[in-house]
Amino acid sequence: MKKYFQNKNFVAGFILFSLVLVLMLVGFIHLPYDPNAIDITNKFAPCSFKHLLGTDHLGRDLLSRIMVGSRVSIFIGVIVMLFSFVIGTVIGSLCGYFQGKIDSIVMKLNDSFMAFPGLLLALMLIAVFSPSLKTTIVALTFMAIPRFVRISRSGFMKLKPSLFVMNAKSKGASNLRIMLCHILPNAISDLIVTSSLTFSLAVLNESGLSYLGLGVQKPDASFGNILSDAQRYILQSPPGVIIPAVILTVLVLGVNLLGDGYSEVNEH
Amino acid sequence: MYYLKKAAGCLVTIVLVSVITFWAFQILPGNAARTILGVNADEVQVQNLEIELGLNKNPIVRYCDWIKGLLKGDMGTSYKYRQSVNSIIAKSLNATVLLTLYAFFLTALIGLPLGIFLAAKKKNPLSHFLSIFSQIWISTPSFCTALLLIIIFTVKLNWLPSIGFTPFNENPAECIRSLTLPSLSLAFGYSSVLARYLRSSLLEEEKKDYVRTAKSKGLSTTKVVFRHELRNAFIPVLTTTGMIVAEILGGSIIIENVFSIPGIGSLITSAINARDFPLIQSLTLYLSLITVATNFIVDILYPLLDVRLRVSHSAKQQGKTL
Amino acid sequence: MNINENRIQEQNIKPLLQIQDLVVNVKKDNRCFNAVDSININIFPGEFVALAGESGSGKTLTALSCMNLLSDNVSITSGKIFLDGTDLTSLDKKNKIIGKDIAMIFQDPSSALDPLQKIGKQITESALIHGMSKAEAKSKALELLSKSGFTNPSDIFNYYPHELSGGMKQRVMIASCLINSPKILIADEPTTALDASIQDDILNIICTLNKTLNTSMLLITHDLNVVKKICSRIYIMLDGKIVESGNVNDVLSSPKENYTKALIDAIPSFSKRGKKLETFELFENDWRQR
Hints:
The complex is a heterotrimer. Chain A is 74% helix and 0% strand. Chain A is mainly α. In chain A, α6 (133-159) runs antiparallel to α8 (175-211). The longest helix of chain A has 37 residues, at 62-98. Chain B is mostly helical. Helix content of chain B is 77%, strand content 0%. Chain C has a 6-stranded mixed beta sheet, with helices on both faces. In chain C, α3 crosses α4 and α6 (166-178) packs parallel to α7 (196-213). The interface between A and B is large, with 42 and 50 residues.
């Protein structure tokens, strides 16, 4: 663990991510205001002790909205990452280990899922099932699974002919045991890097969807929502755009740096 | 053989993409006729509309009909606009294609020199700064970059427009102006990705033996990089380039909404809000096909760059072909 | 001092390559040490000199120092290297010496060539950057390729590296090094990575061509059989220092140092089958006392 904290990227990422995490946690304990409380008389209030980050066009406290928004982003990021990790790794490891015809079919299917550019796959599902938080999570998970399938498949394919696997087989270990206890621990570092990438992409994609009005629905706060509202009043209140944009970037940057730092440490 | 294999794979992917798209929009939603007419619709009306839209047939038959129609160039009729999908798409394609090309051009323009610089001048402080700078842009969502650029260039400086699009044949200069901020929003992030890939590829090449050989001949470091390393380093980056074009295409969906550009992206979002399935279905297929085509082009370009994939002289003498 | 060097001194011939008190320092993981510790080597025009020793003795670093090819964590901390009067340790970046007057051929030819360029282009490259015309460079390249044992030089000229075998690639490297008729060629174990069946061939080609062009050679090797066949003088290197030097025949028949004796004894031969390497114990004692 110590060697991770000696890596500059890891430490920087840890600090940045913690900043946003703390913001979210403070929000759990004490939200300064109801994030949906409208107070037109107080719209576009500048930063003050009363409203640390000011208010938006409806007089809603920006800090509270951002705290809730960070909750959504981190929550969605973690859920999407976990689900796609498990599902994708199971599929990919089975393909990579057993290979054969099913492997070819699954990989072709995987490739075709990856042929839908950008948010298209998510948009398809949202089009069919109406926008909501649940739909967003399912859609983003679908988008993330192919990546895990690819990485875990290539990892398992590479490690299957290794000597330590043959050793385990010769001692009578079952396939499941070999995959879980022998190959997986060796393939895990690539998967962890992919996880950090998946988390940051999920956060980015969710904010994009919410921005389009197709993710978290208004009036619930999400970074995308906050920004699409703020855009309409960009002339009156540029900080209303800059502040959430910066915090969102800090979250994603933090996770990216954590991933970079982790892969740098494990390269050696 | 190489080209045949790639073409066959491409075809399979296209078929699968069409199946997925069809399944998503024709099977999943359930009864489209009911959706169009609303919850309180009359049973008879629903059945009539079903017959009119051909929804009462077997799914596989419907799929084949759809494919037959596609091959003839008929992509169906939009629920919302009551026009053929073709005519709607044609108008929007212009803007999206221009945006994608312009954004990719900027991405390469910024990304390639940046990647070379970061690899060559590792210890330079400017290099460290640029490295951090590019890491920030990768982490910023493209629409955030867009909003920040709007604040600087439209609100404060008033140099570039933030809304709308002028078609190329009307006014080329104005067209480029209107597409500059949108393209930059995409290019900032993706050029950083390109630069990082190129940098790491160049650093890998630097360790190889042929670089030492070139230096032992007396070549200066610059010449070694440009004459030898760059071409070799670019091979793995070529795949990334194809991926970046696809991502730019996908990213244009959001960016068109930010800047109110009447392209395919805007069309998709309004179609989703209107639940206009034929339109969404066709647009989805369109965009995916462009992505598959881009990757296929990258695959074709590979042997041009990597001579090891070409037919060797001895094989040519035996009459073998690629 | 051996007999050859005495005679040369009398005739006042200056050495072509003069390595004087060279110290090369290597930094690794916060430690640094002298991989080459104050060595002196002289090579005279037309000579083939061997630099022998085990892996890790500093032979390759010595060669790389002459060619300005040291990596970032390796540096020459003191000493000089003179090639015909020019100091190789303080060369300008834009010098015209490396690749023209001094050339080096490396151990592993498999990845020594740019995989994306044709053979001909790579051979003529060093000629072109040192001022030869395209036509002259091409004809010289073809001539060298044919002298290196290729029966179809003009075909090979247009091949790509992946179409050649290891031995063929090394012959291409020989042509590439000698196209500028350098004054001295440093050969760093040029046959170690090749099949035993072609090692002799490659060595013969190197020697014949060098003799034709009057190119001196510093042959780095750990194979004393090869040294016996083609070199006139030998330097034995151990742990960064020269422990013994002189005429090949003198040194190999009556070695003074225990390490040299151990090296010579280690040369495999049929008569030594099943016998213990006694000289190794003598050397081991020496080594422990350092």
